[in-house]
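DEPOSITED CHAIN:
***
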Amino acid sequence: MSILIAEHQHALYRDLLAAAAPDLVLRSSADPEELARLAGDCPIWLGCPDLLVPLLRQGLKPAWLQSTWAGITPMLASELPRDYRLSRAVGIFGQVMAEYVLTYILAHERQLLARLASQVERRWDNRLPHSLAGRRVLIVGSGDIGQSVARFLQPFGVELHGIAREPRPLEPFREVAGLPELAGQAAQADYLINLLPDTPATRDLYDAALFAQLKPSALFINAGRGVAVVDADLVAALEEGRLAGAVIDVCREEPLPAEHPFWNAPRLLLTGHSSAPTLPGPMAELFLDNLQRYRRDEPLRGQVDFQRGY
């Protein structure tokens, strides 16, 4: 059984898979023309959507496609086929996303950027910081990644609340409310963290009405999808002092155009879609686990429901 590896780091993936499973027949490239030549003889594809979507557009199709991205929105375009098995990357982003979120929560609580500005201005800044203990953190998107972030934050004594599609008890959250309760929950949050995927139900959630509910001291972190935020409304909220700051990892258009207002918005930090990179080692392990499941005709980890969109 031949496997197509369509990745920018395809040689590394090939080496990892060959070492773990020498019996696999591996074909790999990052060149679109070479991938098109190889794809027809490979029933299983492993790789990133930006290299695989063009193959689907050409009429090529696998029996199973394992995406190396958590987000598979490009695969869901209406003109693309849906009569194959698709799985997204799951279970490998929790720690790196938690490290990202913790970095910027601590930076905000300890006023890191303000102190750097004070140093540049040669101004002694002896304001005393607060502790994270007792801070209310609302994680919007309480799936695998959201739970990992919550577990990392738990030892700091924060009060953990979550938002999911439907309310349910879920460790380590004190409470997980349904998406319709977002505004009320956000109004009480010191830290509002968006980790939602891109679905029709999650677009334009963070608008002027939502930002109007926030505490002026709240920090908003978006590491989910850019389409969840109404950009102009976030900029206006920052300019009017309706929230303390925003850390934006994902945008509607990437790279962000030079004329976009995010570049000059007050107290907004851009992190260039760097929050949770795919690490080849864990990704290769996930693929091999799913390969065994595929051979046994079992449900795949991260198997996508095309109707639901994730």
Summary: The mean pLDDT is 96. The chain has two domains: 2-92+278-295, 94-270. The chain has ten helices and twelve strands. The longest strand covers residues 159-164.
